[in-house]
């Protein structure tokens, strides 16, 4: 009996050892994956591969989130919208190019494991790194044009942006794309090929939250407080 007990104890110890070894190896691989300046990762939920880029000390997705557990019609209010839902169906070319638009509440929940919706302050950290003046960071309207904030973030080569795509260099590799937005005042889509509009995770008041917008005719950025029911793109940031 003593030999059996020793065998069971040894087996349990070996099992624990291999579990710990697996966790350590997995953690090391995950860490190594993000030690370069750019790369790709796969969302385990649907197998979608995304580009990512390191800007300063932050790691951002370099593509709009395209996770689609379900799709809503514009007037349904269920929180996940594909830009051309009523024209091309759920998986048309605009989905391929620009991903999905989410309302604010849904946007809090859709980033892959290990990532999250960036806060207003995390966007400010990005903007400060790219040269914005500290006193301009919480300005409610357009700012950053004097240091070409929008131009440094906007995709410059894909042909998705309408002309003139002011200042676009994409020197950061962020590759902001003009997926437009869903306006819940009239349940219509606006800004395709002209505006990149992103949620932040930060509330402004009960019905409103902060966003970021980049336009084809402006090389700065806009920071607005908007209704949480609107549909905007999502860029996740690494935990």
Automatic annotation (TrEMBL):
The chain crosses the membrane at residues 7-28. PROSITE patterns: PROKAR_LIPOPROTEIN. It holds the Pfam family Fib_succ_major. Keywords: Membrane, Transmembrane, Transmembrane helix. It comes from the Bacteria. Residues 53-238 form the Fibrobacter succinogenes major paralogous domain. This is Fibrobacter succinogenes major paralogous domain-containing protein.
């Amino acid at each position: 009996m003593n030999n059996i007990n020793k065998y069971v104890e040894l087996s349990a110890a070996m099992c624990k050892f291999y579990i710990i070894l697996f966790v350590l190896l997995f953690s090391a691989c995950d860490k190594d994956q993000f030690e370069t300046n750019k790369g790709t990762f796969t969302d385990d939920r649907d197998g979608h591969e995304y580009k990512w880029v390191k800007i300063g000390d932050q790691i951002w997705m370099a593509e709009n989130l395209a996770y689609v557990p379900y799709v809503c019609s514009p007037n349904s209010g269920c929180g996940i919208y594909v830009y051309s839902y009523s024209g091309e169906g759920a998986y048309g070319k605009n989905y391929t190019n620009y991903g999905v638009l989410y309302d604010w509440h849904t946007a809090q929940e859709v980033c892959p494991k290990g990532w999250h919706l960036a806060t207003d302050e995390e966007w400010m950290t990005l903007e400060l790194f790219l040269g914005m003046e500290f006193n301009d960071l919480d300005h409610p309207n357009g700012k950053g044009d004097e240091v070409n904030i929008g131009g440094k973030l906007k995709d410059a080569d894909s042909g998705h942006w309408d002309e003139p795509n002011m200042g676009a260099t994409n020197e950061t590799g962020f590759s902001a794309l003009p997926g437009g937005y869903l306006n819940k005042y009239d349940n219509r889509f606006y800004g395709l090929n002209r505006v990149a509009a992103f949620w932040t995770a930060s509330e402004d008041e009960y019905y409103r939250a902060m966003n970021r917008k980049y336009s084809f005719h402006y090389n700065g950025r806009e920071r607005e407080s908007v209704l949480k029911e609107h549909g905007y793109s999502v860029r996740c940031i690494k935990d």
